[in-house]
Write a structure and sequence with these properties.
416 residues, alpha/beta, six-stranded parallel beta sheet, three-stranded antiparallel beta sheet, 12 strands, elongated
Length: 416
């Protein structure tokens, strides 16, 4: 860990699984926090296996696990074991932040509620991420980002074309947004602690993050607004906010404000559109969006993308080229802005990773290194918590922590 980073010395216990909670802890680790990832012995966090499940992209290297858990130390503990209770208590007393996403009934059964653990550490920031929040009829339901963030929030209903059914959203997209939200809640709690000396119970949920992402539309519904039909590319409500295709098959989205309409018409070589009565102002262009879309379709289909990039840049028209992930990683903007950064130890093919989206000017993030194996740092962490070698042996004998051969078996996928 860097001795000079923003969160150097901050101690974080990551009890969460999958992406949203661990992702928040990863952002803290990017700025120097010491994060201990706690997993059950055996198969560990279920997210270790996500990359094997269709329709996730297939790879030999566990890219999903490393992305969500880089820069952490690994501790394998059976929290159901009575002997694990002392480990948990010492972890909480050691920690500044505890990240958790267990369903409410599970954390009650394991005595991991805020009321249970705050008695050990009044300065603790207890960071909770759930599917549907702490209250209401669905508070105890499990939730993934594709169900709670996407489907339940209104996002999935709106991100499709007219006549098309809802589709499967991009895996992890809601989780990564929620991770940033939970990180923000943690930092807010830490700031409060600096001012008052008191810890906090901070929280977000996938549904809250999804509704916030869909906030303009949800707020419109709260105002009893009249919604346009689902987007129809050939018959849009606004031809200047639409997707078009170049002659070489590339799709790109244009966003043209009213003030930029003359620049667009001139830039694409169609100044005659400026004197066409059908397109004289915003109202008329909206009323005649279908014929305008047909004209723009024909114009943009006449030249390759390189031509249109130059023309649109010259006219200072805002646009975005639609790129697949395999094309995104070649974008020079990602390297220039440290969005893609070097990665150490991720596997034969994983030499780079996606950095967290926050930057602090003049502060370099911790170099990204691989996520831990299950229980990789058990002895190291337990000794740091004050357990003696004899006590660690007793914990192994009790089953609270796994034997070395069990850890090796979990690593290789074989039976001990």
């Amino acid at each position: 860990m860097s001795a000079e980073n923003i969160f150097s010395g901050l101690k974080v216990v990551d009890l969460a699984s999958f992406i949203a909670g661990p992702g928040a802890a990863t952002i803290l680790s990017d700025f120097g926090a010491d994060v201990v990832k706690v997993e059950p012995p055996g198969s560990g966090d279920p997210h270790r296996h996500t990359f094997k499940i269709p329709p996730q992209p297939r790879a030999k290297d566990n890219y999903a696990w490393h992305l969500a858990n880089r820069n952490k130390r690994g501790l394998a503990v059976d929290l159901k074991s009575p002997e694990a209770w002392e480990i948990l208590e010492r972890l909480v007393k050691w920690a500044d932040v505890l990240v958790i996403n267990f369903p409410h009934p599970v954390r009650k059964r394991l005595k991991l509620t805020y009321e249970d653990v705050a008695q050990w550490n009044s300065r603790l920031i207890y960071a909770d991420v759930t599917g549907y929040g702490d209250n209401g009829p669905d508070a105890d339901l499990p939730g993934f980002d594709i169900t709670a963030y996407w489907a339940r929030s209104g996002l999935l209903a709106l991100t499709r074309d007219a006549g098309a059914p809802p589709t499967l959203p991009v895996a992890g997209s809601g989780d990564h947004a929620a991770a940033v939200g939970l990180y923000s809640a943690i930092v807010t709690g830490l700031y409060r602690r600096e001012r008052t000396g008191k810890g906090s119970y901070v929280a977000t949920s996938l549904i809250a993050e999804g509704v916030w992402a869909c906030g303009m539309s949800v707020q419109a519904a709260l105002c009893d607004a009249e919604f346009f039909p689902l987007h129809d590319r050939k018959n849009p409500p606004n031809a200047a906010f639409n997707v078009y295709r170049s002659s070489d098959g590339n799709w790109f989205l244009i966003v043209v404000q009213s003030k930029d309409w003359p620049a667009l018409a001139t830039g694409i070589g169609r100044p005659d559109l400026l004197v066409d009565a059908r397109f004289a102002d915003d109202t008329k262009r909206a009323a005649n969006s279908t014929p305008l879309t047909e004209i723009l379709d024909e114009v943009f289909a006449s030249r390759p993308l390189a031509y249109w990039r130059e023309a649109l840049d010259r006219a200072r028209i805002t646009y975005g080229v639609v790129r697949a992930p395999g094309e995104v990683i070649t974008d020079p903007q990602l390297l220039a802005n440290d969005i893609i950064v070097p990665f150490e130890g991720g596997g034969e093919h994983m030499k780079f990773t996606v950095s967290s989206p926050l930057q602090v000017r003049d502060v370099a993030k911790v170099p990204a290194r691989r996520a831990p194996e299950i229980g990789e740092h058990n002895d190291e962490v337990l000794k740091q918590l004050g357990f003696t070698g004899h006590q660690i042996d007793d914990l192994r004998a009790s089953g609270a922590i796994p034997h070395a051969q069990h850890l090796e078996a979990a690593k290789t996928g074989e039976r001990p």
